[in-house]
Amino acid sequence: MAVKIKICCIASPEEAALAVECGADTLGLVARMPSGPGPIADEQIAAITPGVPAGIWSFLLTCEQSSAEIIRHIRRTGANTVQIVDELTEGNYQEIRTALPGVNIVQVIHVTGEESIGQAKLVQDHVDFILLDSGNPKAAIKTLGGTGNTHNWEISRKLVSEVSKPVFLAGGLNAGNVKAAIELVRPYGVDICNGVRTEGKLDREKLRAFVREVRG
Q: For 20-38, what is each residue's pLDDT tens digit?
């Protein structure tokens, strides 16, 4: 099965169209975050999601930690998938699923050490996908994605082999390293933001090069 490609930090309908044209299966739309690149207003996200073609997933990246707030956030923006970038601390995943039965749930696990495998196992029965990233939710100012840093792919490889749900791999990927990452980790999908941008703008050539490496 072909590895899915998620292009994150989409900032406009034009960037969404470019990503899809170049081969993206999934678009990431970053809402308010404590730090990191790519956040746009909920109103902008809501202007992008209606134009996303059928069959393409639109991931809302939310830092909300309450199921009630996550449900409200999805309803405001119209995305068909929610990427929860921090720990769910109030409510539960079932409340989200009941309120939004057509919405996929993705939980981000920030790979900081072997303990990340246990974290993934705790949530796997409640979500549709797991996404591995290189943030640090325990930092004084949380980093919840978009760091441009890789993490320990050996831990990611072990995690993928031990969980039952499909796993996306994010964190410091680019056209130069994504093939090695796929060969080692064996993810369901790969996720990129900074690695296909030039001066913050989605770069057609970098995007095509990345897709070539993944599809190659």
A: 999 999 999 999 886 666 7
Query: At which residue do the structure tokens 């993934």 appear?
Result: 120
Domains in the chain with CATH codes: 4-199 (3.20.20.70)
DSSP state of 52: S
pTM above 0.70, yes or no: yes
Q: In whole angstroms, how large is the CA radius of gyration of the chain?
A: 16
Distances (CA, A) of 66 to 47, 62, 83, 97, 154: 24, 10, 13, 13, 32
Residue 84, SS3 per DSSP: strand
**139 falls in which pLDDT band (50, 70, 90)?**
very low
Half-sphere exposure of 47 (CA within 13 A, CB side): 11
